Amino acid sequence: MDEGTQQTEPKRRGRRSGGEDTKAALLAAARETFVERGYEGATVRSIAARAGVDAAMVNHWFGGKEGLFAKAVLQVPIDPITLVERLLAGPPEEIGERIVRNFLGVWDATGGGHFAALMRSVTSHDRVAEVLREFFVHHLLRRVLAGVDVTDRPELRATLAASQIFGMGVVRYVVRFEPLTSADVDTVVKAVAPTIQRYLTGDID
Amino acid sequence: MDEGTQQTEPKRRGRRSGGEDTKAALLAAARETFVERGYEGATVRSIAARAGVDAAMVNHWFGGKEGLFAKAVLQVPIDPITLVERLLAGPPEEIGERIVRNFLGVWDATGGGHFAALMRSVTSHDRVAEVLREFFVHHLLRRVLAGVDVTDRPELRATLAASQIFGMGVVRYVVRFEPLTSADVDTVVKAVAPTIQRYLTGDID
Questions:
Q1: CA-CA 20 to 30 A from A134: which of A118, A119, A123, B123?
Q2: What is the interface pTM, i.e. ipTM, of the complex?
Q3: Which CATH number fits domain A2-73: 1.10.10.60, 3.40.50.1220, 3.40.50.2000, 3.40.50.920?
Q4: Looking at chain B, which residue has its C-alpha nearest residue A182?
């Protein structure tokens, strides 16, 4: 297997030449496959085959299917397992703050460009919305809720949190309402974190 | 002037025939003009001229420029002056609840179709985002804040409220995360109204 992949990737790993082309082909194949088959239906093997890449490289480059999905569809440069770990690393009563800081950190890094691209895909392709739903609620927020031992209506809480996370993204990066677009991270965290905290662990009735 | 408009509108006003075609032409002209010139730059006269309609009909049909904008761009069937009045009709400590109820009422009425269409325009045309910003923050939320005597950072509060209103729309109507998509209005109001209330009148630090 390794010999095969050596042909598509130069010995020195980096951001140049063949390696980047192969990664790009893999990301394109992943986007198509996830949209066609959904998150559960898409296999790493089928995506790799479509791109003409060894399946082992998906794990090597993206940390598996979840990481590939994050990069290809969500367009975030971090795999969800690592993100969930990071969100859970701290007191449960500060989960709202960690969520806002981490999402702002990831999206601000590209000036909101990746978030805006995600919203464009979501609004124009029903299937992307479906895949995003499956992934964002079940693979991300539900895990976070399990991690902080919330068992009261976790689905409703997860979708409420999603509404404020996406809404923050829409206003900061897409419609760009000032002063929220230029506000520093601490200002946004102070305002928005208590909302996420309440949706996930507080009183929602 | 009135004789002129009689030619484009049949004597019996209604939802049929020439009147509807003329209205549709006016809405199309309004969308184009608002996108080209912005909310402030677009005049009722220029929109009416583009559609070949008497400017007086804009007031007659849509209650003026704001109502025309609401119908053509925001795709809500209510003019903003009336909406602001409705939002302000009651105790200030329940403004969050009235906002959530009114937006859900308007958007649920088309199964979220109009909200989804608005998001599609916003994500694909920068100018629509700009026009929406100008309008939503300045002509709608700022007026609401003035109505409840909030003078502490009204712009930031307005944009925070907008983030939760749009986020609720995105999750309920665009990505359609369950159970938020099918949740009854009271469930959503109980969960989301305190967020809007805090953003507008509460502690955001």
A1: B123
A2: 0.80
A3: 1.10.10.60
A4: B156
